[in-house]
Design brief:
The chain contains 16 helices and no strands. With about 280 residues, it is an all-alpha fold. α7 packs antiparallel against α16 and α9 packs across α10.
Length: about 280
Amino acid sequence: MKTAKASQQNLRPLKIPSLPAVVMKLNELIRDPDVGVLEIAEELSKDPDLSTRVLRIANGASYGLKTPVLDPRHAASILGLERLAPIILQAGTKRLFAKGEKRTEDDMKRHWKHSILVAQISKSLGERCKNPDLMEPEALYTCGLLHDMGKAVFWDNKPNKYKRCVEIAQQEKRDLLEVETEIMGVNHAQVGAKIVVSWGLPRNLAQTIVFHHDAWKVAKVIPTAVLIALADRLAHAVELNELAGMPAIATQRDFTFLGLDLGGFLTVATGALASWNEIEV
């Protein structure tokens, strides 16, 4: 078993992307209680590319705006800061990998579609779960969006090597994290947590991401990991159109721990099925 020190050493050869300066600044402004929505929108409008991406996300089906918004100031005033923050982060992180290699384009598109779906599901579940120790829905969206960010780094840094990992895991029906550790020297959950810390995002996001494949081990101290793990499983089922097995994705243990009922879960699953084909990347 690799030590934490060994994992840190294996992270060093990987180029961990920096969050764009404009996104970092916007995050700081959003966290400042003395800064208003219009001031943040004004700062956002200074970056046309980011503004365009934010407007595209805000006008998507998942945000349910009754009329299209064409100006970042209008979008900010309608959405509010809590909803605007994850949209800015989504637009900014997507831009980090916008100029990837042609040969990994399809893999990256699948990665982003899955990540956005997990983010949507995480937020929807959070709005229905009664466990008081879970993150707020908008923070859950961010956590779902970033849960597999380590995979994007693998595809960006070592696409051929990582393709081997995915193929071996599928062909030999092995756990992907185990194969990643064997071939890459570190797994995507560890890389994802490193990214979140390096970006100055809340540490509880990093803790959730690093354990989202082993959630029950840390359920008492990081309860959100259980919800993200459930959202991840549901997203995979939606992507594979496994409708028959969908009710079995959440166990009674999940329902009890999260404070979720079957009706709420099925509502989220139905919404995820409807939104999957509408997600654009």
